[in-house]
């Protein structure tokens, strides 16, 4: 590790922290009903009129959930149809054929659920129309859906004796118009300035120094890149994602891309604090996220900066770190930071190959996703995931001292604890169950590039990425098979909706309750004691659930690597 | 034909999703009837 590497990390941390308060306050305004911008408001009203939505009509939690399901069903069918018919549609200069049915379903579910798992290479599979009207549109809408769910849950904590938690269509519209569109537009313009292509022209040829002909893929990249990072989507225009120089051309572009990945997840903690009337509550959650993020980053950076013992032992000598699979233009520190940011959020963009990271680094990247992506997390999903752990933490605290658990004056009772546990336990069923099935199927094992614990990590990472709606790939797994396409689609669907529904249910039950005033016996939830309790709850719940599987993969590989065995 | 199969799979998944919402609602209503809630 170098001081220069830590300086990059410090600059990034300051950049994210500085923006939390102003952006959090702005999103809190968007979460209300007042006009945010006089010149965008007519568009907002026009959308409501066109869609037949009465913005003053609020929904119960179950109606809110039904609206999300219907909206996503429509989105998945539309994206599926677009891929299947792309050969007949315009904006297809490379004359790409229809996407295979199982891959089209996997991709449609992937982007509608804000996962962005890609079993395909974008530049060789999808037309410009499918990328723009399908992938990019879903990036906006799935990101807005996550934020809407988080805001609905926060309303549950903030409201008193209310039967409703907001209107999904209004939240979706306002978040898209006032938050995602403006930031993504500025982000796209910035990336174009840095050298990211934005064109509808076909791929071009170039002669290499040896005189060979090379095809340079391009397209409407910048407009997709900005929202891919901002919305927690992460699906690359190109197969190599942000490791492709046309997606991530400069060190400054890389810094801003990482900033966009964590921007909304971090700012929403402040939105939470403002909406519940105590910003300290939001800062407490931000500190918990920051502690877990920096702890994970220290492990990743430390392991990558150290030499790989498999290279060191034969006498090759210190290599200056583990450079295999790294973004060599930016170095180990930036690659480690990007990988940690991408897996700690729900984004899943990559600028270095996670398959080539040292085993314990790979463990951290998986753990970031396994912890329900609450280490900052995606836009909305990070906040509502963290609030699920808060419910468990205050429940545990209540058990320890023999009092009814409370959070922000709301009694946490049987309904909330059951729903929180349901939401926290559903993804592990898919994260642990599906690799167990895949690991014994010869056809699935044949799709691996590596044997032993590293091969198991490739399978475990894939389902973790899917069920945690992250979408990043470890690499090393040829996932474009009907088995992986369909089972990963199931994992992504379950990881999104089996969590969102209980979250909305908690919002509904909490909104019905009154808020009690704090008394001498109330556990302060903005101080160091609660922060430590929450960190402990997250680590212990995550550790107990996933430790056995991690032992079979990265932990076993860590030890055998030191014995000189590589896979 | 395979497209039809994919649509059927999708429809089954969303049918399960809608049933899941109703199950959660029923569970919460039962809890409130038993004394949990406001």
Summarize the structure.
The complex is a heterodimer of chains A (567) and B (38). With 567 residues, chain A is mainly α.
Structure description:
- The complex is a heterodimer of chains A (567) and B (38).
- Chain A has 567 residues and is an all-alpha fold.
- Helix content of chain A is 64%, strand content 2%.
- In chain A, the strands form 2 sheets. Chain A has a two-stranded antiparallel sheet with strand order 1-2. Chain A has a two-stranded antiparallel sheet with strand order 3-4.
- In chain A, α10 packs parallel to α19 (528-562).
- Chain B has 1 helix and no strands.
- Chain A binds chain B through residues 62, 65-66, 69, 72-73, 76-77, 80, 84, 101-102, 104-105, 109, 161, 413-415, 418-419, 422, 486, 490, 493, 497-498, 501-502, 505, 508-509, 512-514, and chain B through 2-3, 5-7, 9-10, 13-14, 17-18, 20-22, 24-25, 27-28, 31-32, 36-38.
Keywords:
heterodimer; A: 567 residues; mainly alpha; two-stranded antiparallel sheet; B: 38 residues; 1 helix; 84% helix
Instruction: Point out poorly predicted stretches of chain B.
Output: none
Give a count of the beta strands of chain B, DSSP E runs of length 2 or more: 0
N/C terminus separation of chain B: 52 Å
In N-to-C order, the SSE pattern of chain B is H
Radius of gyration of chain B: 16 Å
| Arithmetic mean of pLDDT of chain B | 85
Assembly category: heterodimer
- What's the shape of chain A? globular
Helix and strand topology:
The complex is a heterodimer of chains A (567) and B (38).
Chain A: H1 3-31, H2 41-51, H3 61-84, H4 101-112, H5 122-125, H6 128-158, H7 168-194, E1 204-207, E2 213-216, H8 221-230, H9 251-275, H10 279-305, H11 309-316, H12 331-344, H13 359-370, H14 381-401, E3 406-407, E4 410-411, H15 414-438, H16 442-445, H17 452-467, H18 482-511, H19 528-562
Antiparallel strand pairs in A: 1-2, 3-4
Helix pairs in contact in A: 1-9, 1-12, 3-4, 3-6, 3-18, 4-18, 6-7, 6-8, 6-14, 6-18, 7-8, 7-9, 9-10, 9-12, 10-12, 10-13, 10-19, 12-13, 13-17, 13-19, 14-15, 14-19, 15-17, 15-18, 17-18, 17-19
Chain B: H1 2-33
């Amino acid at each position: 590790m170098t001081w220069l590497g830590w300086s990059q990390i410090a600059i990034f941390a300051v950049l994210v922290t500085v923006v939390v308060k102003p952006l959090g306050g702005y999103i809190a305004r968007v979460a209300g009903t007042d006009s945010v911008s006089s010149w965008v408001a007519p568009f907002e009203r026009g959308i409501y009129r066109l869609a037949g939505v009465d913005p003053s009509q609020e929904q119960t939690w179950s109606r809110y959930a039904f609206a999300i399901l219907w909206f996503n069903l429509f989105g998945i069918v539309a994206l599926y149809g677009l891929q299947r018919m792309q050969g007949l549609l315009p904006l297809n200069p490379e004359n790409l054929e229809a996407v295979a049915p199982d891959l089209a379903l996997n991709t449609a579910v992937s982007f509608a659920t804000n996962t962005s798992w890609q079993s395909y290479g974008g530049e060789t599979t999808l037309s410009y129309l499918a990328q723009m009207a399908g992938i990019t549109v879903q990036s906006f809408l799935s990101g807005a859906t996550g934020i809407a769910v988080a805001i609905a849950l926060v309303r549950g904590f903030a409201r008193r004796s209310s039967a409703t938690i907001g209107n999904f269509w209004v939240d979706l519209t306002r978040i898209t118009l006032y938050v995602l569109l403006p930031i993504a537009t500025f982000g796209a313009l910035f990336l174009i300035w840095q050298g990211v292509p934005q064109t509808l022209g076909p791929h071009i040829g170039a002669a290499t120094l040896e005189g060979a002909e090379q095809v340079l893929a391009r397209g409407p990249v910048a407009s997709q890149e900005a929202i891919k990072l901002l919305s927690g989507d992460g699906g690359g225009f190109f197969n190599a994602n942000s490791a492709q120089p046309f997606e991530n051309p400069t060190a400054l572009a890389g810094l801003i891309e990482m900033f966009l990945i964590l921007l909304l997840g971090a700012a929403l903690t402040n939105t939470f604090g403002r909406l519940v009337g105590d910003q300290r509550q939001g800062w407490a959650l931000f500190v918990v996220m920051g502690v877990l993020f920096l702890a994970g980053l220290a492990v990743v950076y430390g392991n990558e900066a150290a030499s790989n013992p498999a290279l060191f032992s034969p006498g090759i000598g210190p290599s200056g770190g583990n450079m295999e699979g790294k973004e060599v233009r930016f170095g180990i520190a930036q690659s480690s930071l990007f990988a940690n940011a991408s897996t700690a959020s729900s984004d899943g963009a990559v600028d270095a190959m996670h398959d080539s990271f040292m085993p314990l680094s790979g463990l951290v990247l998986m753990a970031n996703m396994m912890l329900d992506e609450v280490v900052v997390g995606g836009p909305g999903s990070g906040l509502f995931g963290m609030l699920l752990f808060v419910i468990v933490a205050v429940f545990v605290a209540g058990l320890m001292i023999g009092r009814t658990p409370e959070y922000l004056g709301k009694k946490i009772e049987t309904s909330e604890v059951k729903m929180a546990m349901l939401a926290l336990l559903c993804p592990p069923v898919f994260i642990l169950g599906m690799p167990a099935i895949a690991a014994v199927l010869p056809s699935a094992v044949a799709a691996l590039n590596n044997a032993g614990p590293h091969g198991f990590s490739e399978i475990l990472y894939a389902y973790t990425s899917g069920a945690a709606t992250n979408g990043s790939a470890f690499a090393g797994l040829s996932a474009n098979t009907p088995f992986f396409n369909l089972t990963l689609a199931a994992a992504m669907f379950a990881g999104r909706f089996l969590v969102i529904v209980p979250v909305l249910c908690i919002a509904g039950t909490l909104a019905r309750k009154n808020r009690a005033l704090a008394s001498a016996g109330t556990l302060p939830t903005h101080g160091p004691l609660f922060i430590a309790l929450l960190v402990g709850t997250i680590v212990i719940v995550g550790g107990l659930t996933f430790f056995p599987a991690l032992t079979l993969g990265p932990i076993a590989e860590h030890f055998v690597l030191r014995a000189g065995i590589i896979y | 034909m395979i497209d039809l199969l994919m649509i059927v799979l999708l429809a089954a998944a969303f049918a399960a999703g809608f049933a899941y919402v109703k199950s959660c609602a029923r569970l919460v209503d039962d809890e409130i009837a038993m004394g949990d809630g406001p």
